[in-house]
Amino acid sequence: MKLTTISLAVALIAAAGTASADLTVKLGAAGPLTGPISHIGKDGENGIRLAIDDANAKGVTIGGQKVKFELVSEDDQADPRMATTVAQRLADAGVKGVIGHVTSGASIPASRVYEQAGIPVITPSATSPQLTTQGFKTSFRVIANDNQQAEAMANYATKKLHLKKIAIIDDRTAYGQGLADALAASLRKAGVQVVAREFTNDKATDFMSILTKLKGMNPDAIFYGGMDAQGSPMLRQIRQLGMTATFLSGDGLCTAQMLKLSAKELDNRVFCTQAGLPMEKMPGGLKFKERFKETFKADVQLYAPYNYDAATALIEAMKAANSVEPAKYLPALKALNIKGVTGTISFDAKGDIKNGGVTFYSYKDGSWVAAE
């Protein structure tokens, strides 16, 4: 009798243990955690952490098991070659989905690795149209692409700023050159003269030879396709040369870091576009901004809300499919339609976000202010 009671108790404990057993699901993150744009990579990683913490706090059950999501983060250094190594490392680690990469130059080569492994990957910030025109089934993005951004900048530059002659410089990365090429095409359609196409690289800090050449052309504006680590010294050198040209750029310079780096040079002649909406215009932007600051003791740099939505999209697709296996939840991801922090998250046939917004910012009183 005593043995039977003990056996029954052991059986009940074992059954209870089975019912509450956690399934750990690894989600990968890839971006620059070291190097000149590590602040953007860490900003995004923190956005992902918030999404995972929220999902774990709510308690998600998939396939009859309580799921605990775990972040596996890798540093791609914003380097195309490192990106493929990192992608393979994440695939080998058994991640069920990836949020990344941050730059187009890293995202495009890495996307092939994820496609071959059958792992869905959502970039929060890579804007090159090339990423989603490769025909890959596993590549998605939650932000507007360069074509949309360039068209918005061209319209604003011509209709609001009345610029006639624009010089273009890019850093020869997939992002910088892609945005510069798209802008040049949009400007020509609008009848604006592109007086020069110059290029540098994403490690440079001395632009005097390029800028001295441009000074002789007397452009109304200089556009730079690249990131804030180069944009800041470039703007400083433009002003050192006494050039009064308007300075234009894309979302790589629409950062809190740019405000710090170029505090002395920024004025009402500096503008940038950013794919997406201002945080105060995002459905969940202000609440996210407060939570982010409270949690990480830092301001949102740029893409943290998009990282949050990308991670949430993967989790919601798994829930909809009742499976964490990529092959099973991929169709649910393609059909996804949810309300995110940044807006509605829904993808077109190529994997691009539907109805991606673009905002034009001007500098005013120490901040980026949404102009349109």
UniProtKB/TrEMBL annotation:
Signal peptide: 1-21
Record InterPro entries: Leu-bd, Leu_Ile_Val-bd, Peripla_BP_I
UniProt KW keywords: Amino-acid transport, Signal, Transport
Family matches, as Pfam families: Peripla_BP_6 (PF13458)
Ranges where the Leucine-binding protein domain occurs: 24-364
Family stated for the protein in its record: Belongs to the leucine-binding protein family.
PANTHER family according to UniProt: AMINO ACID BINDING PROTEIN, LEU/ILE/VAL-BINDING ABC TRANSPORTER SUBUNIT
Protein name: Branched-chain amino acid ABC transporter substrate-binding protein
